[in-house]
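S.,

As promised, the biotin run. Input:
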Amino acid sequence: FGREIVYYDEIESTNSIAKDIANRYPEGTMVIAETQKKGRGRLGSEWQSTPGGIWFSLILKPSIPLEYAPRITLVAGLAVAKSLRRFGVDARIKWPNDVLINGKKVCGILTEVDAEVEKVDYLVLGIGINANVRMKDFREDVKESSTSLEAELGKPVNRIELIKDLLYELEQQYIKFKTQQFSNIVSEWISLSDTIGKEVTVTTPVKIIEGKAVGVTDKGALLVKTRNNTREEIIAGRCRYAKT
Ligand code: BTN
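Predicted complex:
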């Protein structure tokens, strides 16, 4: 990954650029920007992208059925968590795609897919890491629940070293995803999960499910055991932890 790099000082969104150029650039191309004016978050939210962060998108061409696309988000979360841990923080993954340190969000992942009928044509993996973002720059509504590597480590992180390590780990996990059974990735994901074992409320477009997160399925869905003892499989949604 990262053999081709497209760099901008400032751009609307690296995910948008990556989508625009995906058919002209090879798999593993990285689009990276110092700041984004219209960084996109999940479920239509805005992703604040001030200087000091690491805002990038990778172009992937995995030729997998569309229904397997959510797996890529888990693969990416695992890779980011593993890489960040090597820089000295206790990074854990909150289903489906946040990486947390001490319960606060340090990284968000936005996967966007372009599919022809049922097969993935290309996929854009957008990753935002609050590396050396200043705490005072966070928007009021996310300040409490966010953190940066700099804040956690007490000193700035070397972004070049971190990007190199991230690209390496993302490529390793992607190769594993393509060549091994997904259950191998799931078990490693679970070992670094912040979500499994917790009481959660998951909101999907059609319903709200409350219960205990007990596992992740082969498709990347969260398994929740509800109070009346049914098991729900949730492929996409917003997950909140119950207040303790
Ligand atoms: C989330 O809501 O948690 C996902 C945030 C994803 C942000 C990254 S930053 C690089 C890439 N470009 C975007 O516009 N969004 C993603």
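Residues 199-241 form a domain with the SH3 type barrels. fold (CATH 2.30.30.100). Residues 21 and 210 are 41 Å apart (CA to CA).

- D.
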